User: What shape does this take?
Amino acid sequence: GKTGCRVIDLPRVADPRGNLTFVEGDNHVPFDIARVYYLYDVPGGTSRGGHAHRDLQALIIAASGSFDVSVDDGEHQERFFLNRSYHGLLVPNMVWRELDNFSSGGVCLVLASAVYEEDDYIRDHAEFREVARARRAAEPAPPS
Ligand code: TYD
Assistant: This one.
């Protein structure tokens, strides 16, 4: 997508005993997996996320149920609906994300490229826009 986010189709082992999906670091995701966390028991109508990471990359999976992920790279916005246990939304660094519309029983599984470090978070949207702009200005223009 235009924000750099994309949905990755993960391996699926279909089985009458129940289906199975797996994720290998540096194979199905373009980073080493340093941390796994998950959101669960999310009350309907609440929103999670609301931050960006300076360096961390993540794969966001609706392990159960469904939710929406709104992303913003400072220039473009996109919205993804996740409702398959074998789909992962790859979210690069410097992308603001917000998760909402959790279904009842919805579980958001996150595979992250780094351990928890509060200094890597940008939790203020105005600051995010400023850092995103500064980074774009420091980068060579993409090929046209
Ligand atoms: P927060 O990042 O605000 O949740 P989200 O953005 O997903 O809605 O995290 C909530 C709290 O949990 C915050 O005090 C930091 C803490 N936390 C950890 O200690 N380790 C972790 O790996 C994560 C993701 C959060």
